[in-house]
């Protein structure tokens, strides 16, 4: 195995093992004090009704910094109703059930549900940036490699320099070439890793069925709603507006 390949492997493995040392405790949210609650397939499910809107919700897990809720909204009225995941808010609460407050503000912290279509657009923009980054890296690596070749060749042909100086210049040129190859390998590994991750996330958002839509009278829509969360909150209140009122479902964080 070439020296630079061995060094690259060591660097990559070192980064991999370093990344595996940090563990994030699981987030578990259990609905409490709901008007109606039951257990379905071992999962606590809460149901709340306000005017002509009924929401059935359960905690489904965590994706990145999002708490994921399995939501079904029922339109009990005789008119179509426009719904959106962005209408959901998640309010983190302290142990005394008071909201977390923003610094130097009377407003409390609240997070808005993510719109899948907008997430797809943002990820596509990130993929474009990754492609630009690898192109810039290729240019830099090429300049570094060519510079090393020129330096090594110049030192071999420079008869005016001492043997020690020629050796030092030659070693520096060789080091520059090896460094460019190491960096090229790492750049490509990072590029493909990031693109694979972004492609996975893009497909995940594309597959979500809970988008901004219209629910026909006496119909419903179900899907996952992703809302950013605060992990150190003792409680989280899921809120959905209904005209000038709100449906609220309280979740307690459990270990």
Annotation keywords:
alpha+beta, disordered N terminus, 255 residues, five-stranded antiparallel beta sheet, single chain
Task: Describe what this molecule looks like in 3D.
The protein has 255 residues and is of the alpha+beta class. The chain is 41% helix and 31% strand. The protein contains three helices and twelve strands, in the order H-E-E-E-E-E-E-E-E-H-H-E-E-E-E. Strands 1-12-11-7-8 form a five-stranded antiparallel β-sheet, with no helix packed on it. A five-stranded antiparallel β-sheet has the order 2-3-4-5-10, with no helix packed on it. A two-stranded antiparallel sheet has the order 6-9. Strand 2 and strand 3 (43-50) form a beta hairpin. Helix 1 (3-21) packs across helix 3 and helix 2 runs antiparallel to helix 3 (163-206). The radius of gyration is 28 Å and the shape is elongated. It starts with a helix and ends with a strand. The model is unreliable at 1-13 and 16-21 (pLDDT under 50).
Helices and strands in order:
Elements lengths: L2 H19 L6 E5 L3 E5 L2 E8 L2 E11 L2 E10 L5 E3 L5 E5 L17 E2 L3 H42 L5 H44 L6 E3 L4 E9 L6 E8 L2 E10 L1
Helix pairs in contact: 1-3, 2-3
Sequence of secondary-structure elements: HEEEEEEEEHHEEEE
Strand % is: 25-35%
| Morphology call | elongated
Largest sheet: 5 strands, antiparallel
What Rg do the Cα atoms give? 28 Å
Tell me the span between the first and last alpha carbons: 48 Å
Helical residue percent? 40-55%
Count of individual beta strands: 12
How are the strands of the largest sheet arranged?
Answer: 1-12-11-7-8
Q: What's the mean pLDDT score?
A: 84
């Amino acid at each position: 195995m070439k020296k630079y390949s061995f060094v690259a492997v060591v660097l990559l493995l070192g980064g991999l093992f370093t990344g595996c040392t940090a563990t994030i405790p699981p987030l578990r949210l259990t609905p409490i004090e709901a008007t109606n609650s039951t257990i379905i397939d071992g999962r606590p499910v809460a149901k709340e009704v306000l005017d002509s809107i009924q929401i059935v919700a359960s905690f489904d897990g965590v994706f990145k910094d999002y708490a994921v809720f399995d939501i079904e909204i029922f339109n009990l009225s005789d008119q179509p109703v426009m719904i959106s995941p962005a209408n959901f808010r998640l309010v983190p609460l302290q142990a005394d059930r008071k909201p977390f407050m923003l610094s130097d503000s009377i407003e409390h912290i609240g997070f808005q549900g993510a719109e899948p279509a907008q997430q797809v657009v943002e990820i596509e923009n990130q993929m474009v940036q990754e492609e630009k980054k690898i192109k810039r890296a290729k240019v830099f690596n090429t300049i570094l490699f060519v510079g090393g070749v020129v330096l090594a060749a110049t030192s071999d042909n420079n008869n005016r320099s001492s043997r020690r100086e020629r050796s030092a210049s030659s070693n520096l040129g060789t080091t520059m070439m090896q460094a460019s190859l190491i960096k090229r390998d790492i750049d490509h590994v990072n590029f493909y890793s990031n693109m694979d991750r972004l492609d996975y996330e893009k497909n995940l958002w594309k597959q979500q069925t809970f988008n901004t839509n219209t629910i026909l009278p006496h119909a419903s829509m179900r899907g996952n709603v992703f809302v950013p969360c605060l992990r150190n909150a003792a409680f989280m209140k899921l809120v959905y507006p209904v005209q000038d009122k709100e449906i609220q479902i309280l979740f307690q964080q459990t270990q």
